[in-house]
Known about the structure:
Layout: H1 2-13, E1 29-33, E2 36-40, E3 46-51, E4 59-61, E5 67-72, E6 75-79, E7 85-90, E8 102-108, E9 114-119, E10 123-127, E11 133-138, E12 153-155, E13 161-165, E14 170-174, E15 180-185, E16 208-211, E17 217-220, E18 227-230, E19 236-240, E20 252-258, E21 264-269, E22 278-281, E23 287-291, E24 304-306
Amino acid sequence: MRSLLSLACLSLALPVLAADPPKHPGYRVLAQDRGKVAIIGTDGKIEWEVACGHNSHDIALLPNGNLLLHTGGTTVTEMTPKKEVVWKYEAKPKEGYKGRVEVHAFQRLADGNTLVAESGNRRIVEVDKDGKIVKEITLQVNKPDPHRDTRMVRKLDSGNYLVCQEGDGCVREYDSTGKVVWEYKLDLGGRPASDGHGPEGHGTSVYGAIRLANGNTVIAGGNNNRVLEVAKDGKVVWSIDQKELDGVTLAWVTTLHALPNGNLIVGNCHAGPDNPQLFEVTRDKKVVWQFRDFKTFGNSLAAAQVLDIKDVRRK
C-alpha cells in the first residue's frame, strides 16, 4: 500500500508535458511567375501548369474549374483544365483616347459577366460572355498613368467597387454610378520614400484591398511595405509593419485572403529568397504558414490564389 501511495505521489509530482502543436496542413497554391501558371500541391509538387509569359497581376480558379488568367498586357483569358481557351477579352483604347491600355485586375461576377479594370482608359467595365461591354464606371484618377491607374479591383456584395489606384496611392470605393463614397490615402509611415522593387523600396504604390464583414478594409500596401486594416472612419485599427514579423521582411505586398479564424494570407512579392512569397499570419502577428517555392516561381510572384479555403472577404 505504501509503495502504491509513493508511486501515486510521484506521478502527481511529474510535470505535464505540453503536446506539440498540430502541424499546419498547408495549402494548394495557384500562381504565375517565371513564364508559367502553375498549381502547387501541399506536397510541393506541380499539379498543373501552362505557359504564360506575361507577369500577371491577377488570377483566379473559377467555381466551374476553369482558370481566369492574365495572359497579356491587355488580355484576360478563361482556360479549361485541359488548356482550352473558352473565353477571351482584350482591352482596347476607348473612343477619344489614343494612349496605351493595360489590364491589372479582373473578376468573374455572380451573374456570369466579367469585371475588367482598364488602366489608361481610366475605367472599370463589365463584359458579357460574348465580349460585349454591358457596364462602364469612370474612375477618378489624379495622376493618370496607363501602368499605374489601377491594381486590384473587386466588386463588393453591395454592388460598389473597391479600387486600388497605385499612382494616386489611394484606395477608393465607387458606387454603381461611379461616385466615390469612401477613400483612404496611404502615407509613408514615418519613413522616407525610396526607389526599388525590393525591401529597400518604399512609397505609397498600393496593390490590394479587401472588405471585411465588419466593414473594415484590409489593404496590401504594395511598396508601402505594410498591411493596414482601416475602419470606415479612416483610422488604422491593426497593421503589420515591414519588419514586425519574425523571419519575414515585407517588400511589395500584394495578395490578400481573409480566413474565417481571423488570420490573413498575405502576398510578399520582390522580397527575395530569404522571405516567403506568401504567408499566413494570426491577429497576434504569429506566422503559422509560409509558401516559399523559388524553384517553380521567382521573385516576381504577384498574382496568387490560395485554394481549398473559405475566403470570407466580400467579393
